[in-house]
Structures are given as structure tokens and as C-alpha cells.
Design brief:
Elements: H1 2-31, E1 40-46, E2 49-56, E3 58-60, E4 65-66, E5 73-74, H2 79-92, H3 118-122, H4 131-138, H5 149-157, H6 174-188, H7 192-201, E6 210-211, E7 227-229, E8 232-234, E9 248-250, H8 252-263, H9 270-277, E10 295-299, E11 302-311, E12 314-321, E13 326-332, H10 339-348, E14 355-356, E15 359-360, H11 368-372, E16 376-380, E17 386-392, E18 395-400, E19 407-413, E20 416-419, E21 422-429, E22 439-443, E23 446-452, E24 468-472, E25 477-484, E26 487-492, E27 495-502, E28 507-509, E29 514-520, E30 526-533, E31 537-544
Antiparallel strand pairs: 1-2, 1-13, 3-4, 5-9, 6-9, 7-8, 10-11, 11-12, 12-13, 14-15, 16-17, 16-23, 17-18, 18-19, 19-20, 20-21, 21-22, 22-23, 24-25, 24-31, 25-26, 26-27, 27-28, 28-29, 29-30, 30-31
């Protein structure tokens, strides 16, 4: 008996020591991000239980209210997995198929040349333009106006083109999930917030989780978002109410319950986990990394299901590792705090070093001559964002036109590298094959496509050729181009005095991830231009009207 008691005592001491060690480490991590002001709430789920929940900082600066165990916060894009789940439920009920033509439920969409299926909305391969970018190109006044699902629907019904063939490649677009919300409502005959409550939140006893009904609702114990400007915290105000891609609220406790859908194969709703995380094939047969509302990616040799969220004044992260029966939930009401990085630092406390199928992962080593093949200037497809790849002291480095300093790239495979400061970001150079891009930059499953370019050796001297007013029917907006101080200046609503410079011949940009490609008639005179922006919008035609 004494022996047994000794063993029990030793085990209890080890567990207590382990918990104490974890407490210290997680506090160290959070203290490195949170000093004063806005704060953070973090949950760690293990073996089906919320085994750790910590709050730091303030959820409301006006009244200095601290975060607590039931603080309600916005999910932003974490919402997408719940919208996807609603589609999965409707398919199980036999009310739709993800292989259905989207126009079966939304006939108002333009009759594009190729069929867009519901699954293409779910996995972001539809090619449908991103409404956030379209609004930016319109000059939408976010400070004094907001937008709704109906406004976005009407905008999308005017769009005559898409970015790519359905299923060709993944381009992340919030519009996909706004359209999915419309399909859910039309098929179920219910508002999405009512359908999700009935089919998901009530059965799972997620009593503090909801799709927002309107901006005027009183939400008890909610966290307010903040950003910093000139050393002072500000609270962003938004008049937008658009749900499907975002627009949900929840708590750490409720998301802990939701995580068990992914971690427990015997869960009644495990079929939803399988639906949401199923990886479809691209048209070329390549397996995707974005599933249906979540990313499926490897970390330290372990499969993770994850999605982050970001909106004005907030950041969030939800990540599960089924093999370890672990989930991490992070929310911060400061846009300056990186919720994603925090989640991985916490995971580092819980998982071993990198192993693949029981073996330590080996890294590839490039020779100097091999690295030379990757040097050059690359430009994002459908954007003016540039990436210079160069060699310094025998080290391959990358710097974007938005960057302040170069990032060191570490060899991963024969044609891929990872960033030294964030190994989850992968640079893959396309040496062979018709991929339409020369460089892919993978941010945990969100792919950015770049092409190798040659900059114009002598910028166009005849700037007068580009001067004039140009109108887009799809956006219902007019752009004006003038010359000021021998520079070409673009003006449109809420965007005055934008300096645009030539890169590739007859293609201009302002280092805002937007490019303007001018077209000439048979007589060589400029007659129009097409706008591409942020990689998720292309071929918006602006015709010269005077």
C-alpha cells in the first residue's frame, strides 16, 4: 500500500509540475505580446476538455473591463467553417449537392462560360471576384457607409467576368461565402442565423455562439476591437453588416465544444468535420490544401485543421491537431497582436520536434548555382505587388515592394524554400510545367501567384496618351487620369492624387496591389484599360469616354 501511495504521489507531483511549467511558459508567451491596453483570451483543448483557459488585458477600454472566461468575441473568417457546415447539413438532408450548378439557386449570376459548382465556392476555386476588392476599386466610403449581403449580391450580379476557370486554382474570396449564405437561406427557407442555431448551436449547446442579426443588437459581455494610431488606442466603427464569410460571435468555451467535432471520431457531428476538411482536387489533379472552410496543413509533421480571422481591431485563430487530440483557440481585440503566431508558440509547448512518419525531417541543401536559377523580379498575378529574389552572402533572400527588409529563405526541397522567421510560409518556384505562374507563395494554404517580369527599360515619355476619363459599367464608376508635375495621377471617389508609374510597358501601378493595363486601338491610341487588383480581381474594363 505504501508503494502504491508513493507512485500516486509521484504521478500527482509530476502532473502538477507539468501544469505549473505549462502555466509559466504560456504566460511568458502572452506577456511578450500583451503589456497594457487591449488583451487576449486563449483556450487549450486536450482529450475533449478545455484544460487551460487564460485571459489577459482589457476587453473594454472605456470601462476598463478585463477579459473573463465567458467574453464574447467576433470570429471574422473563422465563420466560414460554420457556413460550410450548414451546406454539409443541407447536403446530408438531400436538399442540395455540392456538385450542383450555383446558378440553380442563384440564377441572377451572369451565365459564365463554365459551370461553377457549390464545391467551387466552398474551396475558393470558383474564380468569382472578391467583393472587398471591387468595393475598394469603386472608392467605397467605409467611414460613412456600410454594406450588406444584399448590396454585395447586387454588385456580384453585375459582374461579367471571373478570375479563372472553376477548379483551376485557389483564390481566396469572401464573396464565395456570401453567396453560400444566400444558397443556405434559399434552400432551407430560413435565415442563416436561424438555421445554424437550430441545426448546430443548440444541439452542441453552444449557447453563446451566433450569426449577427443586425448591428443594433445588445451583446452582453462582448469584447470591443481596438487599433493604435499615433500611440493612442482607437476603436474602429463599422456600418457593415454582411454575414457568411464573417459576422459570427462566440466564446472560448463554445469553440472548445466545436473543436471536439474535429477531434472525436465518435462525435455525432463528426461527419461535418469530414465534410469541412475534405480536400478536393484541382483540375490538374493536384490535391488542394484549402478544404471547405478550413485549411489543412502540416505542422511538425502533424496534420492540422485551421483558420484565422482578422477584421478591424481584432485577430483570431482556431487550430486542431486530431492526432494529438489538441485544439488551440486565440482571440485578441488588438489588431497589432498576431493570434496565429501565438497559437503556434502554444502548440510548440504541446508537440514534439518535427517528425514525418516517425522519422526526423531532413532539409534540402541548395548549391550556389542552384540558387542562381531563382533570382529575379516577380510580380503577383493580377496585382502590382513585386517580389525581388536575390542572393546575399550565399543566402537566398526575398523582399516585396511592401517590405522594409529582406527575408532569408531556407531550403526545403529542390524547388522550394521557407522563411527563416516563419517556416509555414513556403516559396515554390515553378521550373517546369504550364502552371500560369513562376512562383507560388503559400501562407498556410492561401496561395499567392507570381510571374517573372522584365521591367520597362525606359518608361513611356508620352504620358499625354493616357490622360482622360474612363468609365466601368461593372463598377459604375469613372476614373480620371491627369498629368501633374510630369507624373501620371489617378483620381476616383475617395482616392485623389494617386501617383501611378509604369513597370511593364503600358502597365502602371501605385504599389497598392492594383495594376492598370492600357489597351491601344489600331491607330496606336489608348482606348481603354483593364484593372487587376490584390490577386482576386482581374479584367475590369474601363473605357475611355473623353
Amino acid at each position: 500500500m505504501k508503494f502504491i501511495l508513493t507512485i500516486i504521489s509521484a504521478l500527482t507531483s509530476a502532473i502538477a509540475f507539468s501544469q505549473t511549467s505549462f502555466d509559466k511558459n504560456i504566460n511568458r508567451i502572452l506577456n511578450s505580446y500583451i503589456e497594457s491596453g487591449p488583451g487576449i483570451t486563449v483556450g487549450v483543448v486536450q482529450n475533449g476538455e478545455l484544460m487551460y483557459h487564460i485571459n489577459k488585458g482589457v476587453m473594454n477600454l472605456e470601462y476598463k473591463l478585463p477579459f473573463n472566461d465567458s467574453t464574447v468575441f467576433g470570429l471574422a473568417s473563422i465563420t466560414k467553417q460554420f457556413t460550410s457546415a450548414c451546406i454539409g447539413i443541407l447536403e446530408k438532408q438531400g436538399k442540395l449537392s455540392i456538385n450542383d450548378d450555383v446558378r440553380k439557386y442563384i440564377p441572377e449570376l451572369s451565365n459564365y462560360k463554365y459551370v461553377i459548382q457549390i464545391k467551387h465556392l466552398l474551396n475558393h476555386t470558383s474564380g468569382i471576384r472578391n467583393h472587398n476588392v471591387l468595393l475598394d476599386l469603386q472608392g467605397f466610403d467605409y467611414k460613412h457607409r456600410g454594406y450588406t449581403n444584399k448590396m454585395i449580391q447586387e454588385l456580384m450580379f453585375k459582374q461579367e467576368g471571373v478570375n479563372n476557370l472553376p477548379g483551376e486554382k485557389m483564390l481566396y474570396s469572401n464573396t464565395n461565402y456570401v453567396l453560400l449564405a444566400l444558397i443556405i437561406e434559399r434552400v432551407s427557407g430560413m435565415k442563416i442565423e436561424e438555421f445554424a442555431k437550430q441545426e448546430i448551436f443548440e444541439p452542441l449547446k453552444m449557447h453563446n455562439t451566433f450569426y449577427s442579426k443586425n448591428l443594433e443588437d445588445i451583446i452582453e459581455n462582448r469584447a470591443y476591437p481596438y487599433y493604435k494610431e499615433s500611440g493612442q488606442y482607437r476603436q474602429p466603427k463599422s456600418l457593415t453588416h454582411c454575414i457568411g464569410a464573417g459576422g459570427m460571435g462566440s466564446t472560448v468555451q463554445d469553440l472548445a465544444k466545436w473543436s471536439n467535432v474535429f477531434l472525436n471520431p465518435n462525435h455525432d457531428f463528426f461527419y461535418l468535420a469530414e465534410f469541412i476538411t475534405e480536400l478536393d482536387l484541382l483540375n490538374n489533379g493536384q490535391l488542394m490544401r484549402h478544404a471547405r472552410g478550413m485549411f489543412v496543413s502540416s505542422y511538425k509533421g502533424l496534420t492540422t485543421y485551421n483558420h484565422s480571422g482578422r477584421d478591424l481591431g481584432m485577430r483570431s485563430q482556431f487550430i486542431c491537431i486530431p492526432k494529438k487530440n489538441i485544439a488551440v483557440i486565440v482571440y485578441t481585440n488588438s489588431e497589432d497582436v498576431n493570434a496565429v503566431n501565438i497559437s503556434y508558440e502554444i502548440l510548440d509547448l504541446l508537440v514534439d520536434e518535427t517528425f514525418v512518419e516517425g522519422k526526423r525531417q531532413e532539409s534540402y541543401k541548395h548549391s550556389t548555382s542552384e540558387k542562381m536559377k531563382f533570382k529575379g523580379v516577380y510580380q503577383e498575378l493580377n496585382s502590382d505587388l513585386r517580389m525581388e529574389i536575390f542572393i546575399e552572402n550565399d543566402t537566398l533572400k526575398a523582399i516585396s515592394s511592401f517590405g522594409r527588409s529582406a527575408t532569408t529563405l531556407i531550403s526545403k526541397s529542390a524547388n522550394s524554400f521557407v522563411r527563416i522567421d516563419n517556416p509555414s510560409i513556403v516559396y515554390t518556384f515553378q521550373i517546369e510545367g504550364n502552371t500560369g505562374a513562376d512562383l507560388l507563395v503559400d501562407f498556410g494554404g492561401a496561395i499567392f501567384y507570381f510571374e517573372s517580369i522584365v521591367l520597362a527599360s525606359s518608361p513611356n515619355q508620352n504620358l499625354d496618351a493616357f490622360v482622360g476619363n474612363y468609365h466601368s459599367d461593372e463598377l459604375n464608376v469613372t476614373y480620371s487620369i491627369v498629368i501633374e508635375n510630369n507624373n501620371l495621377i489617378l483620381n476616383y471617389p475617395n482616392n485623389e492624387g494617386v501617383l501611378i508609374k509604369e513597370g511593364v510597358k503600358d502597365t502602371f501601378g501605385a504599389n497598392r496591389r492594383t495594376k492598370y493595363t492600357f489597351n491601344r486601338g489600331n491607330n496606336g491610341k489608348v482606348i481603354s484599360f483593364k484593372v487587376a487588383s490584390e490577386g482576386t480581381v482581374k479584367d475590369i474594363l474601363f473605357e475611355k469616354i473623353d
